[in-house]
Design a protein that fits this description.
homodimer; alpha+beta; 6-stranded mixed beta sheet; 4-stranded mixed beta sheet; 26 strands; 35% helix
């Protein structure tokens, strides 16, 4: 069992012995700190066999351990069975940190055996591939290990030597994102970054985040699952911009474009900043990228129209199809993707669709597999979180759909989530406050019922870039980045009852100015997403007139926007979905 | 003009020259980091003449400057005229920090004159009285000055030598706070602190905050304005507790008590921790002190009854008195204090009363002086923020009172503040979240009208201790300390219109458990303060039935609690004030 893992660890230990390593660390990160790691950098999965999205493997000369968090305890237990790795349950009070464990393990007196006599130096060395850690992480590790008299070596990647058939770094072609979608030239963006450098009295910045590079240069790629980015680095100084990229990825037109905007090209590798200057800038790109320009906002609106058409066609199709039988989580995902792919400027999904029926809805990051794929029945709730990449904008929408009769608890949870979603959408708030400072408004209604959810309430969405984009978030934990006009942000409260159901209602919103008074400037969230919100599950006695008014106004906006783009049958269906809910009597 | 300030600075410079100082810093802090500074430590006021609550004076051999914030720009300008001090406006982008200014000033090439030739060493020395800064502040200064090649000397206080008639350190007697009010013996508290030390693997803690010392030893004093504390330090190790205090402050009974609980006594000075151990603990006392025990909570309830009786007598008296004429901000403050002082266990005010009429209400920390004292007229709003120290509990209450006809804007602002106050009081929230995470609920209603306020929404209140108590707060800016059952916290949103009026409505609340569900434990705020909230200004069309219900329930609670303690006339007045507001029609 797991002979390959045992053999790999043996080979690694041989290599470590030769090179003088006492331990080697394999994280789940890549050199570009993105949400998805290209296969080339999945060294932790390669050495340990554990395939969760988060985890750190450590191999010492006579021990091996893998850290992962509670989402993966069961899967990891399974996957690590009969391997040299023991599971370290991250987040439990008794679990040591990776560095603490290494310090303790390496300092423990070792059994005196023949092999140990080979060791000549007393100083232990821990190895990492320095490319896949941030500078801050490396400094923190150096400090922790330094106290224990342990050295950190960062310049060797054993997978480069030991991993046979290692997937190559993707070499997909880079494409130019035209100004009609980008709305600002790369030269102008570069000039703004340089201005920020000057304001900070800094002289250079090394950009390793792939979406920042794509945004800055108005280029897109296809190297990373669901994210239209390409593997590269940028080193930007007050005088030069150099793109470190594999030459094969650039066709002549792109090379010409790069030359025309004054960007030099070097082979792909992490740039040395030694000659770039003495002071690195704090990265100004995340906030610049987060604030969409007028062209990008127009693009979002157009993309939402197309995405809304696909969603309407899908939703009209869905219930009869479920009633006819034989539809599953995977089959409806396929159907929805097909409808989206028929839309103009479609470039792929912005993330893997979450189509989660019944109790699967309570698994927050559920992705149906052939083993779990549930057949949809005409009852209960379907949670459907999906989105697409269009060249003019990225979409992210969640609808929770009643496939038939619901329990009282399902209706209650649906109504509370909807109330939270609407409250946040109705909130006017001071310019520049952080998302943490308004997060409670999405939770208030459910808190009153003793209900809460563990995920964030909102994240930025890129313009034909990553669907999860910073620096701002609407989140319970403290995220200081201010909310600013022009940013996109999702509004997605949820309720999850293990073994029963999940509810989430999500629109992508645009942060817009909402007037200035003697007390300052105010902002609010305006929905970009165009798709009806199901009203069948709503317990109207729990809704206020203000909330009903919001729903009516939103549905009028959806209908007015989408109806000209629909055929007659779809239009009639949408009209029925968007018909006004009258403000019920007995409202609080 | 200001001959005395000029002479003091001259004397100081002479002293600095003798001792080799290039600059000396006088902050507004004292050795115990309290809200009020005993006169003995007001060295910044002594050297500069500036008497604001916040400010830092710096004197160099040929320059002098005083930093203060925008609250005091006008007063400081006035008070520093014709002194050697120039005003540095803290918080403005062009204003350098104290350390930056000192570094630049000391590094600037000096005019070559005879005096300079005296200087033999190149290294400049900046002086502070190390006792009045925290360790962290000293370290930060050392780091900042170190980079500029400047030394920091902390062991000399020139005021000790130069300040003639310096007020002595208060020598008031210390009193025992009996167990019937404290609810936990000092031995038990000490044992809990030691347990926290062990959990942190620490071996000692130096306690310098006076309310922490008073809480830990179940002692009270009268050394600080409005705060029943006494000047001292505690050094606590796993084996010893030593109180550093002036012997004159202890009578025989207190000495005996201290001996009985195993607390040693040393003369007052900042203890050296050199022999105490190697690892200082993170201070566990603020959270321990913040969570009130059953006895303390019972004491709060009893104190609130007495405070409520005084408030009811005052409020019944107020409007006829104003109509009769000749009442002013100061005269009503005197009346209220008198009524409070008649109550059992009264020990003084918990802070200086804010009685702010009309436009004075917009000045958040207004304190009437003979020069500003306004005569109250039967119109407009009176903002009255006050509280008392009772031996069984500390009170803090704000009521905004309509003395007669109001403007529409006054009624709107009152209604929005009331809605915010009620919303926060109605909120059920997850156990352990921070006050920042619920702060928006008090602001939501006014945000919708483009209104906001700059102060915090709530602070802890001590048990016969400081009226402003940490570590938790309900505040817009990030305060991570969790809200826990048993903590007190105020609920005090406000609206302030410069030149017009101010509104604030404040109850002191107790954080209480509110059930556990599958989603975790929940808490809510229960009012401790017992005093009717004025309903005359309320715009009922803006209120919800839920809000009206809350007011009715609160008023029933107030009436039921206070009426047995009132004479017939007061009772009838209270009954009228607490009569139920019927849930109006047309509510949202």
């Amino acid at each position: 069992m797991h002979k390959d893992i045992i053999e790999k660890v043996q080979a690694l230990r041989h290599f470590m012995k030769q090179e003088g390593f006492a331990a080697f660390i394999f994280p789940s990160t890549d050199p570009h700190q993105g949400e998805y790691v290209p296969a080339h950098w999945m060294t932790r999965q390669w050495i340990s066999g554990f395939d969760g999205s988060a985890g750190t493997a450590v191999v010492t000369t006579d021990d091996a351990a893998l850290w992962t968090d509670s989402r993966y305890f069961i899967a990891a237990e399974e996957q690590l069975r009969n391997t040299p790795f023991r599971l370290m349950k991250d987040g439990l009070p008794e679990t040591p940190s990776v560095t603490d464990w290494i310090c303790e393990t390496l300092q423990a007196p070792k059994s005196k055996n023949a092999e140990d006599l080979d060791e000549t130096a007393n100083e232990k060395t821990v190895g990492i591939d320095g490319n896949v850690f941030t500078e801050a992480d490396i400094k923190a590790m150096e400090a922790a290990f330094g106290k224990a008299g342990i050295k950190l070596r960062t310049d060797l990647d054993p997978a480069e030597i030991l991993w046979t058939n290692r997937p190559p770094i993707p070499k997909n072609k880079v494409e130019i994102q035209p100004l009609e979608y980008a709305g600002e030239t790369a030269q102008s963006k570069i000039a703004r970054v340089r201005q920020a450098l000057r304001e900070q009295r800094a002289d250079h910045i090394l950009v390793s985040m792939l979406d920042e590079i794509a945004w800055l240069l108005n280029l897109r790629g296809s190297d990373v699952h669901c994210n239209p980015v390409f593997v590269s680095y940028i080193l930007l100084t007050l005088h030069d911009v150099t793109l470190f990229i594999d030459n094969e990825k650039l066709d002549d037109a792109t090379k010409e474009y790069l030359q025309s905007i004054g960007v030099g090209i070097c082979p792909y590798k992490k740039p040395s900043t030694e000659n770039a200057g003495t002071k690195a800038a704090l990265n100004p790109i995340p906030e610049m990228k987060a604030i969409k320009n007028e062209t990008e906002i127009r693009g979002f609106r157009k993309a939402m129209l197309r995405d809304g058409v696909a969603m309407v066609k899908f939703l009209r199709w869905l219930k009869p199809a479920v009633e006819a039988g034989n539809e599953t989580e995977i089959s409806i995902d396929r159907k929805l993707t097909e409808l989206r792919s028929e839309q103009a400027l479609y470039r792929g999904l912005s993330f893997d669709t979450i189509a989660a029926y019944g109790s699967h809805g309570a698994i927050v990051h559920y992705e149906a597999t052939p083993e779990t794929d549930a057949t949809l029945e005409p009852k209960g709730l379907l949670l459907l979180d999906s989105g697409a990449q269009y060249q003019d904008g990225t979409t992210d929408i969640t609808r929770t759909i009643a496939l038939g009769p619901l329990t009282d608890e399902e209706r209650l949870d649906y109504t509370l989530v909807l109330k939270g979603h609407i409250r946040l959408a109705l909130t006017r708030f001071p310019d520049g406050i952080s998302g943490t400072q308004i997060d409670a408004l999405a939770r208030y209604a459910m808190w009153q019922h003793g209900i809460n959810y563990g995920h964030g309430t909102g994240h930025g969405v890129g313009s034909y870039l990553c669907v999860h984009e910073g620096p701002h978030q609407i989140r319970h934990s403290w995220k200081p980045a201010p909310l600013r006009a022009g940013m996109t942000v999702t509004n997605e409260p949820g309720i999850y009852r293990a073994g029963k159901h999940g509810v989430r209602i999500e629109n992508t919103m645009l942060i817009v100015p909402d007037g200035t008074t003697e007390f300052g400037s105010f902002l609010r969230l305006e929905p970009l997403t165009l798709c009806p919100i199901e009203l069948a599950p709503v317990i109207w006695e729990m809704m206020t007139c203000e909330e009903a008014d919001y729903l009516n106004a939103y549905h009028k906006y959806v209908y007015d926007s989408l109806s000209p783009l629909l055929d007659e049958e779809d239009r009639q269906w949408l009209q029925a979905q968007c018909s006004p809910a009258s403000c019920p009597t007995g409202l609080k």
